[in-house]
Amino acid sequence: MKKILEANDCFVLRSAGSKSIDLVSVFIGPEVVFVEEKSTHSDKLYITNSGNKEQFDMNRQLSEKYDLTIVYAVRFIDNSKKKLWKVYEPDYKEDGYPVFRNDEGVPLDEWIDSITL
Question: What CATH number did the domain enclosing 108 receive?
Fold first, then answer.
C-alpha cells in the first residue's frame, strides 16, 4: 500500500507494529489521511474479530477527539492470490462495529483519484 500511495505523489509515513494507525498519507491539497490496513481471505472483514475491535475503538477516539480522517484499506486475497485493495470510510459516530464487504468498498485507484482531484 505504501508504494502504491507514493507512486501517486503522496508523502507516506509508515507506523510498524500493531498500533492503531498503519500509514499516514499526505496528498496534494494538502489532505492528511490516516490508513488502517487489514487483509482477509474472506469476502468480508469483521471488525469484531480478534484485535480489530480494540484498534477500531482507538481509531474512533482519535477521529472524534482530533477530527481526523481515518480510513480502512482492506486487501481481499482470493484463491488465485490476487490482491484487491478496497477503501472504507467508516462512520465513527455510529454505534457498533462495521463489516467491510468486498462488494461494497471503493477500489483503491478510484479512492486515490477522488482524494487527489
Answer: 3.40.1350.10
